[in-house]
Design brief:
About 5% of the residues lie in helices and about 55% in strands. The protein has about 425 residues and is mainly beta.
């Protein structure tokens, strides 16, 4: 955490110095807002180890301070986040989601510091999104991201927008507390044994020279994105470090390979229809085997993946003012059941209901079905404002069916849970 803070402060100090030299007399507009949140999680089933809890209470807070020049050219934005969890000390953490200086001059934009950058268009699986590390302890859907230190430069023209990224600092992925944390997938990850392809295991390995490039353009109804990434893989390969014993789970070691990735994302807006597509080709070294270790064969693996589908919106249903959106997407990996993730040959189906009321009520129901093993997952997300400052959020995620020979599903079978959140915004 200390190294991350140093990197954030270095980039932010550079932005402040640049602001001082380029606009010493600029008047600033100040904006401050944020929220505090009470969260409760319940796991109906017991965990794989007797020390693992079923009920968790947590507190979280997020603030955003923005300093903006009146000519809109300069901005300094700081967005800290912190959570305290009753039982899971790995989930008790703090992060600077954003801490950046931004300069905009007509078609040119420069960002220095910590920021969040999202790539992609699909709903169930964000395939090409790779810039930020997933905040893995915040939720199981992969939506929460850690702040990424970067220097980002963009240029917009009638022929599209080109953005280049220099990503000098790497964030490892955190996992649940090995003794009390949930969800637990039948193993623990030892953060003290993190290994990078460079061979380094110390904090020096987190100072990297990752780079990325993205091109975006809109042509009629089509929004097109092309991306390239060359750097450290955000998702680690988990290697067996210590075999299981009668009183403990297997201990895994996180290995971060060097990765090259080329991606494409397209969205077409055709009236009430949205057509979405993402595809990538990636190349990185991997240890081979169903339960790989440092002693396993090691070779370069190139993989192709794709996801895409449709979304159709029904507006003002029965003159009620409410909308319903139907989503269907397919997820594919050429390795299918041999893929190192559970999305090799799957279909996702979702229904989104939006009340369009002053309370911003919305409900999203979804399922993912593995077409090879017949494993199925179901999820529910609902939110509603209470008064002018509160928001209530309910999430539920459960595995409905566990297919044969599906190791991911077998590990996740008892980790279904309900998450309740009450947030106060100011």
């Amino acid at each position: 955490m200390r190294a991350n803070v140093k990197a954030f402060l270095f980039c932010l100090t550079g932005g402040l110095a640049l602001l001082q030299t380029t606009a010493p007399s600029v008047a600033l507009e100040i904006e401050l807002d944020g929220n505090v949140e009470l969260e409760m999680r319940h796991f109906p089933n017991e965990g794989p180890m007797p020390t693992m809890e079923q009920n968790f209470v947590a507190l979280a807070a997020e603030m955003e301070l923005g300093l903006y020049s009146r000519d809109s050219r300069h901005a300094i934005i700081v967005k800290p986040f912190a959570r305290y969890d009753q039982h899971d000390h790995e989930r008790s953490h703090a992060d600077l989601r954003e801490a950046k200086y931004r300069y905009v001059n007509r078609s040119f934009e420069l960002t220095i510091g910590a920021d969040k950058e999202f790539w992609g268009v699909t709903e169930f699986l964000h395939l090409v999104d790779i810039v930020n590390q997933t905040d893995n302890v915040e939720g199981t859907d992969g939506e929460a991201k850690l702040g990424q230190v970067m220097v980002k430069a963009s240029y917009a023209s009638p022929y599209g927008t080109v953005t280049a990224y220099a990503l000098p600092h790497f964030r490892i992925r955190q996992f649940a507390d090995p003794e009390t944390g949930r969800p637990n997938l039948g193993f623990t990850v030892d953060d003290n044994t993190v290994l990078f392809e460079s061979g380094e295991t110390s904090g020096r390995a987190r100072r990297v020279d990752d780079v990325a490039l993205r091109y975006k353009h809109s042509i009629g109804a089509f929004d097109i994105g092309l991306s390239y990434f060359d750097g450290t893989a955000r998702e680690p390969q988990l290697l067996l470090s210590e075999p299981p014993s009668p009183s403990s789970q297997p201990v895994m070691q996180a290995f971060y390979a060097d990765r090259r990735q080329t991606g494409l994302d397209i969205q077409a807006t055709l009236g009430p229809w949205l057509l979405k597509f993402e595809a990538l080709q990636s190349t990185q070294n991997r240890y081979l085997g169903a339960l790989a270790s440092l002693a396993s064969p090691f070779e370069e693996v190139t993989a192709e993946r794709a996801t895409g589908g449709i979304e159709y919106s029904f507006y003002n249903i029965f003159n009620s003012g409410t909308d319903i959106g139907l989503v269907m997407e397919y997820m594919w990996d050429e390795r299918e059941m041999a893929a190192p993730h559970p999305f090799g040959n799957d279909i996702g189906i979702g229904l989104r209901w939006t009340a369009n009321d002053v309370q911003s009520t919305a409900v999203l129901i979804g399922t993912i079905i593995d077409l090879d093993s017949d494993t199925s997952l179901i999820s529910l997300e609902a939110e509603r404002r209470i008064g002018s400052n509160f928001k209530a959020i309910v999430e539920a995620r459960f595995q409905n069916e566990t297919g044969e020979d599906d190791i991911f599903a077998a590990a996740n079978e008892d980790e279904g849970h309900i998450r309740l959140r009450l947030a106060y915004y100011f």
